[in-house]
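Hey team,

Filing this mostly as a record. A colleague (T.K.) asked me to run one chain through the structure pipeline before their review meeting, and I want the input and output archived in the tracker in case anyone asks later how it was produced. No errors, nothing strange. Just documentation.

Input sequence:
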Amino acid sequence: MNHSPHHTNRAKQQEGSILVICMVMATIGTLGVTAWISLMDARGHLVEANMEALERRTVRENSKALAYYAIYYSHLHDKVASGSYSEYAIDDDTVDDLGQCIVMPYSTAPLTETANSRQAKNGASSSRAFSTDVEVRLFKDVAAMKGSEYEAWDFQLRSYHPNLGGELLTFYPPAVPASGNPLVSGSLHVKGRAVFWDAVKKDFGAGLRANEYVLPNRIGGTTTFPTVAGTNTLPLNYPIPHTTTGLSAGGGWYDGTMDYFESGTNTHNSYYEKMGSKVVLDGSVVSTAGPGPETRADTGYDSALETQIQTEDPSTLVSSLVPYYPLSSRVLTAIVQKNNPAFTGAQFRQVFEEHLPIPNDALSALMATHGTLMESDMEALNVENNTLYTSDGNGNVWVYLNQAGLPDLYIQASNTVQLVGQSNATDEGAAASLPPRSIIIARHDSDPDFSMVSFKHANRRRIILGLTMEGSTPQTTPATFRFAGSVPFPKWSMLLETRGIPASFNLSPVSGATVRGGIRTNSELNITGGTLTLEQETDYSSLDTNATRHAWIEAYRK
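Output structure:
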């Protein structure tokens, strides 16, 4: 069968179109494959670059984390400075060079630093803090570690006493966590931060008010807390850095253990060691420190006077003994020992006032026998005599804070301690200019329960007062902190620290009191008879170097 020419031309045209289409598709396919190969190559380079960047970032962050760990583990709480550089690296059996840092030498252990150089940059920390600055060299990648290239960082090893930094109420983990009692009961107003390292809802009674609260995580049942002004506030939630007070015997370095009163392990941040010129005062031993001589010598008529003292009435003796002044320590002691009838407090004061400054042995005999007799007369006599402190040998101790020569005191084997402040504005002003003093009251396992600290009048002299259980068993019976005297609503300048001994504040005699400084404790606080107010101390001179501290780290790129 013959085809027409027209039909033959159409077939040839179709064959040519198919060929063109095939050629176009081959070209597009070639371009696609080429583009795909280029894309995969670019993607491979990107993945490789990302891996290198990830490796660099991992090494850098590992090096930084390693520096934090090394300083927390080996340097922040240490007793001594580092005289040479310390190198740290992360390696394992399969991968080398995971991170590396070098802690350069520094001259001062952080918890012993005395140079106050700058404000803190951490919002949770004190604006008044000490800083030991340490250069730390962080290696930023594997090549840098092999080539000794590094980033220089400034690790600031900071330290401060929390009360002086605005944390006016600082609660460490409770010494008796299963007691069932709230940590705070009664009316306590905190004009600053109240910080609880470990607490539950029941620990915040209706009487606690603070301008700011720092609380543990996951505290259930309470979302807002009352301020001193009577409004409600949410607890602060900014990050708090890890802190340490130094090595702790039988405990962790960063778990809030209060091992800084008398610690052979933590000597560089221990009150016992910080009190370089301290007097160790034993409450079971009769002793007095005053401006008088240790004794006044016998005279030729002492035997006759001793007989006269035994036979005459005290009301007559206060006059008949005058011609023989000054009386010897022997005769003054005979007056103290007369008991049929005995001298009254006013009569003792009348006789002894004529012998200022009183011989220490005679005053010791008087306080040991009649220290609690007509308390106001005894107090007035000791103030007139410029007595520093006295112990009656029965566990009762008196300390006179307005005396410039008062040393730091470490008091043991005591039952009650009376701190005598100032009864008028003139004496308060004079006391405010005196150097601060530390008074640590220690109870050991062999001692009976400590009973009371009495705060007499007001006090502008800055003191650190510590009440500590230095044995293995916390005291469960609260010690009374009693405010009394001639000044209503007294204000006491002091950092008050209690460890292992609950405190019961009795404000009934004065209707309310203020502690200018703050409270740091691991034991319960109970306030009765009024409101106890905590205010911040603004006069830091010498006080912050005498006080024990927290230490933490802040790091910045140089």
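Quick notes for T.K.: The chain has a mean pLDDT of 87. The two ends are 97 Å apart (CA to CA).
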